[in-house]
Amino acid sequence: xxxxxxxxxxxxxxxxxxxxxxxxxxxxxxxxxxxxxxxxxxxxxxxxxxxxxxxxxxxxxxxxxxxxxxxxxxxxxxxxxxxxxxxxxxxxxxxxxxxxxxxxxxxxxxxxxxxxxxxxxxxxxxxxxxxxxxxxxxxxxxxxxxxxxxxxxxxxxxxxxxxxxxxxxxxxxxxxxxxx
Length: 180
Description:
This protein is mainly α and 180 residues long.
């Protein structure tokens, strides 16, 4: 919402205009502790971050001690209560978003997917290695090269199709795990 011309601090009335909302709504946000206040004014960037749940990378980085504290999950002694609260609120909003996206199947657990893919590739390998056992007797008695080629093509295609189907369903199965 903010740009280079947006002031860092605003009154409630100016902030209401900035957000295109009513003044009573901004007062309600202030009473509920949602606005990040600096003295009697609203810290526009921090409050927009809380209200919009912007990723931290989308806003100007704070001072170096503050950035280090964020990285370690701590608040330095020089940070104000409002800054610490903003960091916590943005973090909670991101956790809620990740939890929601996992439950609706937009995100899936990477380790689960890797394990499922590894299992499917092992099954594929075993299927390919089983072709000689399945076909050796039949191929030994067959003299028609076209029939031999057709049998081999059929077996390889069957194994490749099974792998493709399994990989297609890997993500689908992981979605159900996330929605427990």
